[in-house]
Amino acid sequence: MIATQVPQQESTLDPWLEGSEAECWPLIAEAAKEVGAFVSAVREIFGAEAAARAAEYWIEFAETVSLPAVEGRTNWRKLTIMASCRLAADTIFGGESREVMLERQHRRSH
What we know:
Layout: H1 21-46, H2 48-64, E1 69-70, E2 73-74, H3 76-93, H4 98-109
Antiparallel strand pairs: 1-2
Helix pairs in contact: 1-2, 2-3
């Protein structure tokens, strides 16, 4: 269970946090719950290496993607879907981007 008490210490997450820290803790807890469930599922099905990549991708998207709110809540699931797609692309394309694969196929066909 997530504690509802907000620590009275200085945050190390600034300047990522906007507004009062008390308002941000629920968002952080929601994000942690989502990424934790995602990484656990990936670890269970595909192993620790894939889980580490999944976490890396999820965090990368969290830092770079603007998330629309759904019913007034942050849509963390969108990050999970994006990270899942990237992990699948790694599996399908052997870690190369789709663009690199398409370029290689184009060169071979000419």
